[in-house]
Specification:
This protein is of the alpha+beta class. The chain has helices at 3-13, 17-25, 32-47, 59-63, 70-89, 93-106, 114-129, 134-149, 153-169, 173-190, 193-209, 213-223, 232-241, 258-272, 275-288, 293-306, 317-323, 389-400, 407-415, 421-438, 471-481, 487-494, 498-510, 538-541; strands at residues 352-356, 363-366, 378-379, 405-406, 443-448, 451-456, 460-463, 514-519, 522-527. It has a four-stranded mixed β-sheet. Strands 4-6-5 form a three-stranded antiparallel β-sheet. The model is unreliable at 341-346 and 537-542 (pLDDT under 50).
Amino acid sequence: MEPALRAALDAADRGQREPAAAALAQLSNRDPGYLQACQLAVQAHLVLTHPSDAALPTREAVAQHVESAPDTRTAASLACSAAATASVLGLDAEGLREWNALNASLLRDQPTGVAAGWLTLSRVWEQLIAGAGADVDARLDALRTEAVDAQAAVLAVEATALRALAALNAGNVEEAIERGRRASRMARTEAIPRAEFMAHLVLARMRRVSGKPHLAARILSSLLEFAAAPWHPWMLWELTLAGGQPAQGSAGPAAPWPALEQVRTLLDAARLGDHAQFDERLAAALDKISGWVCFETDLRLFHHLVDPRIAFEDLDPRVVGWVRGETAETPFGLHGLCANPIKPEADEDAVAYVIASPDVPARRVLSFGLELVPGEAIRLAQMRRRSGRLDTAAAALALAGPEGLESTEFFRAVYGFAYTPEIHRGVIKTLVHRLRARLEDVARVHSESGRLRLEHVTTAILPDPRCSAALNDRVLWLLSTHRGLSARDAAERLQLPLRTVQTALHELVEDGSCESQRMGRNVSYEVEDTTFSEPTLILRRRGKFPA
């Protein structure tokens, strides 16, 4: 690739339209066909980084160069690869395949080089969206090495980011997180907006999937202030599932994304308890994302976490332990949908509840599923004691089923540490006494031969505090989408005492989870992510985006 074209594409990947045009002007004395192919490539790259209303080149315009000289076909190929990325971001699988087919025709006799590397990456995208994992990892790793050797920074970053997605598809969450962090650090070092958008988007997904939706929301709300329109659908999908909202003043999508709109109406149907509409919206949303395994996984897991009508044997294996109460960590961080700390119902902040009845095994559901519980049920309001031990005791015994729990198991489930008879015997007696009073309208508490069990007399809905966000997590969540808040602002939004929030903020600053900034007498707080930093300040200096 000649220097002028490389400079033009580098400027385009940074969102710098005028420098890209200036670099292209150096090619004005070249063959018209070659110049046009270069212009198409720069146009396609700018669509991914610049907030203009420019459209991607048409396939017909690029296809005119299929029979051209090799250097012209190489330039046209780079337009194809950028258009393929735009197809991925827009969930256009057919468009991705068509761009890749055209790209292969352009590079039919050029198996190596940066353009060929981009074609390889686009082909791997086809496999990733179909669920490929370990089988594409070696190819991506080799591509990353080749890109580094060729000084193709954006290609190297995106190959690393795709390795994170491949590891996630393979079920290796820890490796996926590490690769996502690596890609984000690489992008931060290069400070090229296109690379940052991709790497940080993937990192946000890894943060959510690993159970940290507040960090995902922090990343995504920041990205949406800067990213060009093609990135918005996927970013908004991730932000929605993380329970966040776009920052005030950030750009929204140029047009509604059908899949995301279906998910939002699905959430509304769940809140209303409309079974028919919920089923209809779920089917419509799954149809919109058919073939995209990562998004199908998100939606199916959400469905299995909220819908109490699904038989246990039909549950996805990844949610069974949570539904049965064997683990408190919600799969794929989907508790973020329910864990927003700013709720109109200040007395209810539980994200999960246990549905228990006399004739059906107890199960846990996310709060979105409460209105989907079939038939009549008595819902016990969440107690406002900070420890939530009485609610925890009720949820733990309900999920234990008719066999109940031994006293030692019960004590550990409620208090989190081992039972010592000579110290804790009286504690359990008091707890059981209070539990009987708490559950008198819905269940009987039996204590026999050192075991405790519930006998349900009606269907009950019991809050399970073990899945709720701790106070410090709630404060982090708030700061992730409302940057620069003071302690007083945070306390007002959380509807908590100022001193309580000040103590939490002090602890979070001490452990490095957030940072404080003093301006005169005012102190504000922001979430600190050890990997993510906001997109390059070039965007800020030029009014969010360069000319």
